[in-house]
Amino acid sequence: MYPVSEPTGEQKYLFWVEDSLVKVLEDQPMSDDASKKVNLHAARGEYEAAQIAIRPTENFIARMRVECSPLKRRGGGGELPAPRSRFVDSVPVRSNSGSTPPEHLVAKAPAWIPEVLYDVSDVDVWPNKTRCIWLTFQIPASAEPGVYTGKVRIYANKAVIAVPVSVRVHDVTVPAKGKLRITNWVKLDNIARWHGCRMFDERFWEVVRIYAENMAAHRHNVIFTPMSIFFTKEKLIGISAKGKKLHFDFSNFDHWVETFIEAGVVGTIEGGHIGGGGSVHCWIPRGGEVVYERHPADSPEAEAYLSQFFAALQAHLDRKGWTDIYCQHLMDEPSSEWKDVYNAAARCGSIPAAGRRGLMPIAS
Q1: CA–CA separation, 196 vs 207, rounded Å?
Q2: pLDDT, tens only, 183-221
Q3: 289 to 237, 304, 306, 310: CA distances (angstroms)
Q4: Could you tell me which CATH class the domain 10-171 is placed in?
Q5: 301-305, 320-324, 354-358 — which is least confidently predicted?
Q6: Where are the domains positioned within the chain?
Q7: What is the mean pLDDT of residues 297-317?
Q8: Is the pLDDT assigned to residue 363 strictly greater than 60?
């Protein structure tokens, strides 16, 4: 067991500042030219981030906490809020992507890769292991241009490490809402599994709200909305049948979209893919049950399913007032060999001709 205390003094630690785009691995040493000062440039109305790495050099565990204070403008005239501090943690990566050149890999698998930001008051740092503090600076749109300075203090057992901070705010402002549409695809079942909840239970929706608020804080304006089982085993629309007529339950679909809109992610609802590889995900009434099957987009089965699905979706979007902000994925990465089936899917159901109000098909 390692002791948890040590004589006072910074000499027991290596610490340095890293760019926020750098993945700092646990075995990463401090370079000879490492900076020991946070030095950032920022526009008004934006976020900037930096990392402070710390590494105990002797056989003890450091219990580390961070204290941040507001930054004062040189010459007076205002201050910036204290940066938000979080601790970086790593996740296991068991294998690398097969097509990635070795020189482009962060690390050769199996490896632990920095990925998670934890909002906790303090953490342990192990001997000869590097751990990072993630600092997020939010620059108000009303901030006066100029240089703002302050310090971040790191308390590691009995040692106190003061890291100087300088942020130059330029006379330019980032708009609160951007025009560029940016999307992030998600898997519903992965959200539930990672956060230890069940699909669509109370905790699931609380996690989705946190995701939505994080996306809004980073100016995301597209709500990816899984419609079928593409990239997930779950879907947001329930399907049942009475005879040959399908019934669609949009309650989870509505909950999903409304959660993101309420959080501030407003722009485009991106309906997830209905198929891929030339076929469509279909739910077919058979023997009193609804059966999942895949059929070519130009088949009678796909036509029968999509004509009902798109008609119901169009009517529901009209009722909710979402039609004008909705677009619909069809096939993932359609190649020239799938041109006919892609066009067949686009013609199905209520997708109208160009220029008419309705569902807009898109490809990815």
Answers
A1: 10
A2: 888 889 889 998 999 999 999 999 999 999 999 988 899
A3: 16, 16, 18, 20
A4: mainly beta
A5: 354-358
A6: 10-171, 188-362
A7: 90
A8: no
**Strand partners for 271:** 225, 328
Nearest CA-CA partner of 350 in 331, 318, 270: 318
CB 64 within 8 A of CB 131: yes
- What is the distance between the alpha carbons of residues 235 and 230, in angstroms, rounded to a whole number? 9
Q: Which amino acid is at 258?
A: E
- Residue 137 and residue 121: Cα distance in Å, rounded? 18
Q: Does the pLDDT value for residue 67 go beyond 90?
A: yes
pTM for the predicted model, two decimal places:
0.80
How far is residue 78's CA from residue 56's CA, in Å, rounded to a whole number? 37
Whether 319 contacts 262, CB under 8 Å:
no
Residue 127 pLDDT level (bands cut at 50, 70, 90): confident
Backbone angles phi, psi at 58, to 5 degrees: -130, 175
